[in-house]
Structures are given as structure tokens and as C-alpha cells.
Design a protein that fits this description.
single chain, 135 residues, alpha/beta, Nucleotidyltransferase, domain 5, 3 helices, elongated
């Protein structure tokens, strides 16, 4: 008995990708449609605030600006002040204005240690209401 021998035994079988891509696109379309219908049905009721307020907003007080120059020179609201008088003035300002802030503007040529020391002394008095200006 002789069997027929397949003459194309060395070639690889071909896979037809078109039906697989059709199924993949159908599944993708299904998930897109389902996700769109689920998101449009959900909603949250939110009551927005109105523009007209009955109580007027309290104006923020002007911050206390302290400028630190080279040679231990300090300016308090553009007025020269001695270093010894600086902390009592800051303390009096913070006690007088409950929402006031203190801003330290240091010269860029000053040593960093000196600026941090002065800022730390003022933070001991005012905590989070004392800040360092960066520009």
C-alpha cells in the first residue's frame, strides 16, 4: 500500500486574522457602548452657593513686611528699625491682628544662616503666620 505523501510538508500553515479581528472589534464596541451608558446614568445633586452673600467678607489686614538688608539693617514697613526692637514690634502686631501675617524679605547676598536664624526667632512668636518671601 502506498500512501500519498503531502508534497507541501515544509511550508507553515497560514492563519487568517480577519475573523479574529472582527470578533475583537465587536467586543471592544460592546464595552464602549456599555461604559457610555453606565456613566450617563450616574449623577450627584449639588447645591451651588449663590453670588449674593448676606454677610460681607472681612477684609484681610495688610501684612507686616520686614526687609533684611546687608549689615544687620532691618526695615519695618520701609522704616529703619534696630534689631533689638524688631521682635517686640512683631509680637505686638501679631497680638493686635489675629489674621495678620508677617513676611520677611531678605537680601540675596545675606548668609543663609543669618536669614534662617531671624526667621526662626519670628516663627517662635507667630508660628504659621510668619513666612519668607522668595522674590
Amino acid at each position: 500500500m502506498r500512501f500519498k505523501r503531502n508534497q507541501r510538508s515544509g511550508s507553515l500553515p497560514e492563519v487568517n486574522l480577519v475573523p479574529m479581528l472582527d470578533v475583537l472589534m465587536t467586543v471592544l464596541t460592546f464595552f464602549i457602548i456599555v461604559s457610555m451608558t453606565l456613566t450617563t446614568q450616574q449623577g450627584v445633586q449639588v447645591q451651588l452657593p449663590s453670588n449674593d452673600s448676606e454677610t460681607p467678607a472681612e477684609p484681610q489686614p495688610q501684612p507686616l513686611i520686614i526687609q533684611m538688608k546687608a549689615g544687620n539693617q532691618f526695615l519695618l514697613n520701609n522704616q529703619p528699625i534696630a534689631q533689638a526692637e524688631l521682635l517686640p514690634n512683631v509680637k505686638a502686631y501679631l497680638e493686635k491682628t489675629s489674621k495678620g501675617a508677617v513676611v520677611l524679605q531678605a537680601d540675596q547676598q545675606l548668609p543663609y544662616e543669618q536669614v534662617i536664624q531671624t526667621l526662626g526667632d519670628m516663627k517662635d512668636l507667630g508660628g504659621d503666620r510668619v513666612s519668607l518671601a522668595i522674590e
